[in-house]
Write a structure and sequence with these properties.
It contains 45 helices and 35 strands. It is an alpha/beta fold. Strand 22 (755-759) and strand 23 (765-769) form a beta hairpin. Helix 15 runs parallel beside helix 17 (381-391). The chain is globular, with a radius of gyration of 40 Å.
Length: 1188
């Protein structure tokens, strides 16, 4: 396959398949294709569609593309880049595109970059459906919903009600056994392909009623046989079969069979289950009786079990159609779509072969010139259909499909590798590859190449052959990522095999235990002795890749026990955690506080942390136990009165739960989960008020369903980012780690499903049940599983950038009886392959032995791979010292805060004073009230009947509060919203909008547009440059303001004010404490900060009363002079704490008091301005801070 040169390869219209092996720069290539299409082909960014797999990938790709466009523009404009990209260099040299035109196109692309469609496939489909509702037959207001699992469960329950609510007891009992019950059918259905067509291979064309008749007939026959030959059967199993089979439970079985067949008792699921034990195939005869026929009762029981299997298969096939119909119907009725619906509805719409379908295709084709599909190997046939119908074969579009079929590992989500190859063949697209690995060190790239070349068919697929990847020799990875052990260069690829005594055997469980024990030692050694480049290996540099979450938890438990920091990296449901169960038991204890057993169970949880000694002590110390019972009763009452969150947090404090749990190695995770659960419980009970018993039922359901109704995932912790990462291979895809350990790839990943998928000879996808499937179907299913196993292995190995360690356990290889073939893990198959030396394949017995040393060591030696690949063993019986690794103490300088001076103390006395409190002894209450009294209103109106209507607006506290709110709420720069804000405030404060709206708006306009003394108006102040109602508190000392007068400049307003007040007692601060206040407005203009206070005073009730002289008198009479000086001290203290190198003259602009009724009639009227001398401010600040 030809290598793709991002800078020089011709970008031809049509389909281009770009195979990008791990680490070869797929995102790099996508960004450069995008750049070339913009500059070279003149494509507008809004006509470039880029689709990738996850939201995180879309954000990364968007950032990378934008950064490249900016760099390209800078280079085109003549700026010198540190290291110019080859693609940019070539574009600048294009004769067909002048530099000026390139600059124009790049500027346009950057300006319009937000128009670029870079999204997930679901995001693209949602956009298509939203913009083309009529053409796609999709509701205008269809809601994207994730409740499909809940709908499926509801549909299954509905199916059971329809078919079994009135059924015969036998049928009801059979439908309730574990392998048939509703939960089993729900699990089966949820694993079916959700976005592609499939056939059900196990459907035999039977109707459900036919299977009922078969069950009835066989049960009648069994009844007769038991009555006639039951004793003979019991004697047979007691004397002629091995003790570990049916004979062991014969007495129990006899009771069930007698109750139903002799005493006419009800048929139960437990009764049906016993036939699995009495069937003929389960009766293993002793050696002396191997040729003796088995009892007829057991042979008919065998037929009965087969009839149950027929019933189960028919039920599943029938239920699938029922569920499909029900769920689709409910979705239409409720107006919801699932993520899978987005794909299927879009595919159906663009595939329509009528005028509507053609119109939709033409519309979408005209919207996009280019489509670039990332991670194409993980798409399914439905997505292939969408892109084929829209962009393949038009002759006018570019369709780039970027992916790596070797990394197609999401088969369980519907990814179909066969459809990938089919699409490439049908469209006749050009095929290229990216052949250079930039992220991995050269020795590890070469080792990985050698590993997969050991087999002539590592991926077991005729269309998927391994192609070697070139390393970037001497590149950034080689310079910075080379792994060293104890200062020595070691082989970056290690195969480590478990060994045990010849002739003995080992199972998967024991192998995992031994491997984990060695893994702990090896990881500890890497942390102690390993380096990446010049830096010591840190925990976050290490990843442990496993096949399943249970395996991950096993490793995590071992690491935790040995003080190795580790985290399981997965989307674990909060409700599946141990903490959820503990919270449930605590809630049950609170609800049942009279039940001592429930309280004891709650106290014994890890959350509350009581141990056996506590329970023993309570037997002797009854008062302590009574105290806990009282505590639970009190918290039960608190739950009912104040809510579950308050009750739980209080109980946590009472039991010291947080501090006790934090002492554990996993304490941070536990405490986070407990607090998160408390919040979730609070939210659940708030959204839908639940009684305590109902809330417990809700939590129990969530735990049972793992949060299907509303998924809550465990919160990520910051500390987890610096821990060893334990994750599944599927979760690791797309990630990179310096050091990777793969401990279990030679073992079975765990429990297999009852169903499997495979492609038949015609290429159709078939769903089959393992039990009862034919040899050909099982064989093909196993082959496709083995193919994916090899691809999973490839993904795991290529996550490592510096070092990779593979474990191999010689667990005996087992034969699949249905397929008549060995089930060999991909790791074992490749390591033991003889293709490299052209030796004959291993025999079946040699494969079963499953030891790899005899095949691996000669390969390493003869291929001279010692510098790349090492082989080591560890003994199952050998004792090994576990790591004593401890996280190194940082050598960096520790940051420390300012030390509280030992002589400094918090002032006592009156804790809070305000400006109003300081002047309360004078004839002013500190409020913005008009100076007139009711008796004067008539004369004012008579004298000023022709004055501005603003003076007729009512006076008093209500009017003052109204005007303050208006000026706080309006945007000074946006007059359009003044009307709405003012109307709302008039209504709120009880004024008639019809009478006063125009009057107030006129006043607002004058105030906001009036030029202030410093040459600007408030209309220039944006929302970002203003803070309303800025509160302050600062400490003050006892003292008299009269003592302060002599030090003030005689001409200052404060000096004149204090002299006018004289020696009045009111201006004495009697004791130390704090001064508090609220500044109406602090704003910023041209780098200076100003203090402003709104005043609604009416003064004389006429514009003439707002002259400079009148305003100054008002300021003196109402003590506003003192007020703003106090505010000024608080503001300057605040600015000094926020502005580096604060300078009074540079950063402070002055104080404005705006008497809003009088502003605008004449320049300067209604405006008071002062900029106190800096020395005065310093003296005042010192006066407040002085000590007695």
């Amino acid at each position: 396959m030809k290598a793709f040169d991002c800078a020089n390869e011709s970008l031809d219209r049509g389909v281009t398949l770009l195979e990008a092996s791990a680490g070869t720069g797929k995102t790099y290539a996508l960004a450069r294709i995008f750049l070339r299409l913009v500059v070279e082909e003149g494509v507008e960014v809004g006509k470039l569609l880029t689709v990738t797999f996850t939201k995180a990938a879309t954000e990364e790709l968007r950032g990378r593309i934008r950064e490249l466009l900016v760099d390209a523009l800078a280079s085109f404009q003549g700026e010198t880049l540190a290291e110019e990209d080859p693609t940019i260099t070539r574009l600048k040299k294009l004769e067909s595109i002048p530099v000026e035109e390139g600059i124009r196109r790049l500027r346009l692309a950057i300006t319009c970059f937000d128009e670029a469609i870079i999204s997930t496939i679901h995001g693209f489909c949602q956009r298509v459906l939203a913009e083309n509702s009529l053409e796609t037959n999709c509701l205008f207001e269809a809601e994207l919903d994730q409740s499909s699992p809940a709908l499926v469960a509801e549909a299954v329950r509905d199916y059971w009600r329809v078919h079994f609510s009135q059924a015969d007891p036998l049928i009801s009992a059979v439908a309730s056994i574990d392998k048939i019950k509703p939960a089993s059918v729900v699990e089966f259905y949820n694993k079916l392909p959700s976005t592609q067509e499939y056939e059900i291979g196990f459907s035999q064309g039977l109707r459900l009623e036919e299977t009922h008749k078969n069950l009835f007939d066989l049960l009648d026959l069994l009844k007769n046989l038991w009555i006639e030959e039951g004793q003979d059967y019991l004697e047979f199993v007691a004397t002629k079969i091995r003790k570990y089979t049916a004979s062991k439970k014969a007495a129990i079985h006899r009771v069930f069979l007698d109750n139903v067949f002799l005493h006419e008792r009800s048929i139960t699921p437990e009764f049906v289950d016993i036939f699995e034990f009495v069937r003929a195939s389960k009766l293993t005869l002793l050696k002396d009786y191997e040729n003796e026929p088995k009892p007829e009762f057991s042979q008919v029981a065998e037929k009965f079990c087969n009839a149950i299997d027929d019933f189960s298969q028919t039920l599943r096939a029938d239920a699938v159609n029922f569920i499909d119909s029900k769920v689709s119907s409910w979705k239409r009725e409720r107006g919801i779509l699932s993520f899978d619906d987005l794909l299927s509805v879009t595919a159906e719409a663009v595939s329509r072969q009528d005028l509507v379908g053609e119109s939709l295709r033409q519309s979408l084709r005209s919207s996009f010139q280019v489509a670039m599909i990332d991670e194409f190997q993980d798409t399914d046939p439905v997505q292939f259909t969408i892109f084929r119908e829209l962009f393949a074969g038009t002759g006018d579009h570019w369709l780039f499909l970027i992916g790596d079929p070797k990394q197609s590992i999401y088969r369980f989500r519907g990814a179909d590798l066969e459809a990938y190859f089919k699409f490439g063949n049908e469209t006749g697209g050009q095929k290229y590859s990216l052949d250079t690995n930039y992220r991995t060190v050269t020795p590890l790239v070469e080792a990985t190449n050698s590993f997969f070349e050991k087999s002539d068919d590592p991926f077991l697929h005729p269309h998927l052959k391994f192609q070697t990847v070139n390393p970037k020799k001497g590149g950034s990875a080689d310079q910075n990522k080379m792994y060293l052990q104890s200062g020595e260069v070691v082989a970056p690829f290690e195969v480590r095999e478990l060994i045990y005594e010849e002739g003995s055997s080992i199972n998967d469980t024991e192998a995992r235990r031994i491997i984990i024990h060695d893994l702990v030692k090896q990881v500890g050694q890497v942390l102690q002795e390993g380096k990446i480049g010049t830096e010591s290996v840190k925990p976050e540099d290490i990843a442990i890749l496993v096949r399943s979450n249970p395996q991950a938890l096993e490793v995590w438990e071992a690491f935790r026990a040995n003080n190795l920091p580790a985290v399981v990296f997965s989307d674990v449901s909060l409700f599946s955690s141990e903490e959820a169960k503990e919270i449930l038991w605590v809630l049950e204890g609170l609800l049942e506080y009279r039940n001592e057993r429930s309280v004891r169970r709650a106290l014994a949880t890890g959350l509350l942390g009581m141990n056996s000694n506590d329970f023993i002590n309570w037997q002797n110390d009854h008062s302590s136990w009574e105290a806990w019972l009282t505590c639970f009763r009190q918290h039960h009452d608190m739950w009912r009165k104040d809510g579950i969150y308050v009750a739980l947090i209080s109980l946590f404090r009472r039991a010291y739960a947080v501090s006790q749990n934090l002492r554990r190695t996993d304490g941070e995770r536990r405490v986070t989960n407990f607090l998160h659960l408390a919040e979730v419980l609070h939210e659940a009970s708030s959204l839908n008020p639940l009684s305590p018993s109902s809330l417990i039922v809700w939590l129990r359901d969530q735990i049972q369903d793992a949060g299907n109704q509303k998924e809550e995932y465990q919160l990520r912790l910051e500390s987890e980012s610096t821990a060893i990462q334990i994750l599944t291979v599927h979760k690791s895809k797309g990630l990179e780690y310096p050091v990777v350990f793969c401990p279990f790839l030679s073992l079975s990943p765990g429990q297999r499903d009852e169903s499997f998928f495979y492609h038949d000879r015609q290429g159709n996808l078939v769903v089959e049940l393992k039990k009862g499937a034919g040899a050909e179907a099982v064989g093909q299913g196993l082959l496709e599983e083995d193919q994916e196993d090899a691809r999973v292995l490839y993904v795991a190995l290529t996550r490592a950038a510096s070092r990779c360690v593979l474990y191999h356990a010689p667990v005996s290889i087992k034969e699949n009886k249905e397929a008549g073939a060995l089930k060999i893990p991909a790791l074992t198959r490749i390591l033991r392959s003889q293709a490299w030396c052209e030796e004959p394949d291993l025999s079946e017995e040699e494969w079963k032995q499953n030891r790899i040393a005899s095949e691996v060591l000669p390969w390493i030696e003869q291929k001279s791979l010692g510098a790349l690949i090492s082989f080591s063993t560890f003994d199952a019986n050998a004792s090994c010292s576990l790591p004593s690794w401890q996280e190194p103490v940082s050598s960096e300088t520790e940051l420390s805060g300012n030390v509280w001076p030992i002589e400094r103390r918090i002032p006592s006395g009156v804790l809070l004073r305000s400006f109003s409190a300081l002047v309360e002894g004078i004839d002013f209450e500190g409020k913005d009230l008009d100076a007139v009294v009711d008796g004067e209103l008539v004369s004012i109106h008579e004298q000023n009947s022709k004055s501005d209507e603003i003076f007729e607006f009512p006076a008093g506290a209500r009017a003052g509060n109204f005007m303050h709110e208006v000026f706080e709420q309006i945007d000074f720069t946006d007059p359009k919203q003044w009307d709405e804000v003012t109307s709302r405030a008039l209504v709120k404060f009880g004024f008639d909008p019809n009478r006063w709206l125009s009057v107030i708006l006129k006043m607002i306009h004058r105030v906001i547009t009036q030029k202030l003394g410093c040459g600007f108006s408030l209309s220039e102040i944006s929302q970002e440059d203003r803070v309303e109602e800025m509160e302050f508190h600062f400490p003050i000392q006892a003292g008299r303001f009269s003592q302060f007068i002599e030090s003030l400049p005689q001409e200052s307003l404060l000096s004149r004010y204090l002299q006018g007040v004289g020696q009045e007692r009111v201006l004495e601060i009697e004791s130390e404490g704090y001064l508090k206040g609220l500044m109406d407005l602090v704003f910023r203009h041209d780098g200076k900060y100003y203090l402003l206070d709104w005043k609604s005073n009416r003064l004389s009730g006429h514009e003439d009363g707002f002259s400079v002289k009148e305003i100054e008198a008002e300021m003196m009479d109402h003590h506003y002079i003192l007020q703003y000086h106090l505010y000024l001290v608080g503001l300057i203290r605040f600015l000094k704490s926020r502005i580096h190198n604060f300078d009074y003259s540079t950063h402070f602009g002055g104080i404005y008091y705006l008497f809003v009724r009088g502003i605008g009639h004449d320049s300067g009227k209604g405006i008071f301005y002062d900029l106190p001398d800096e020395n005065l401010v310093v003296q005042l600040d010192t006066f407040f801070a002085k000590t007695e």
